[in-house]
Design a protein that fits this description.
By secondary structure, the protein is mostly helical. It has one domain. Helix content is 58%, strand content 7%. The chain has four helices and two strands; from the N terminus they run H-E-E-H-H-H. It has helices at 14-37, 66-81, 99-132, 143-165, and strands spanning 44-49, 55-60. It has a two-stranded antiparallel sheet. A hairpin with a 5-residue loop joins strand 1 and strand 2 (55-60). Helix 1 runs parallel beside helix 3, helix 2 packs antiparallel against helix 3 (99-132) and helix 3 packs antiparallel against helix 4. It is elongated, with a radius of gyration of 19 Å.
Length: 167
């Protein structure tokens, strides 16, 4: 039977609080952008973009609400999950000696990912509205590679730091 992991109350640093605050600000900005531009949208808008950033699916303008809803659910869900670092998966065994370091790294990684997710959803929302109103031409060829870099480079960094923290 697996040993129960230590439950530690983590005190967020000012940098941690700043990343969380930026995430909330971006999330509110997505909603504000959506509501302030909703009335200017045509009845049919892009709802999907291919890997090259070109619109390849279209639907009702009501579908523009889906992006902020999904971003909000992900952000809040990850915020709640971040309160329970003892249930995360780790590349090394959790002990009383390394729990604080590994939990801190894991919660920082989730904070960063939350911010990246809302930035990505905000970018898609912004560019969808720009495209729908004739002010833009899709996401652009750079969007997918940039998104992948923003997500995977930090994930790799935090996994490496977690393995090193146990040495």
């Amino acid at each position: 039977m697996e040993e129960e992991r230590p439950k530690i109350t983590l005190i967020p640093t000012n940098a941690d609080k700043l990343v969380d605050l930026l995430g909330w600000i971006v999330l509110l900005a997505i909603w504000g952008w959506t509501f302030t531009h909703y009335s200017t949208l045509p009845d049919t808008i892009p709802t999907h973009f291919n890997g090259a950033g070109e619109a390849d699916g279209f639907g009702s303008k009501v579908s523009i609400i889906a992006l902020p809803v999904i971003a909000t659910l992900l952000f809040i869900g990850l915020t709640v999950l971040n309160r329970y670092p003892h249930i995360f998966n780790y590349p090394t065994a959790i002990t009383q000696d390394n729990a604080l370091r590994l939990y801190t790294l894991a919660t920082r990684m989730l904070r960063y990912l939350k911010l990246v997710l809302v930035l990505v959803f905000g970018g898609i929302e912004f560019m969808t509205i720009q495209h729908a109103t004739g002010k833009g031409a899709g996401l652009g060829v750079w969007f997918l590679p940039l998104t992948l870099v923003l997500i995977f480079i930090p994930l790799i960094y935090f996994v490496i730091k977690s393995v090193q923290a146990n040495k």
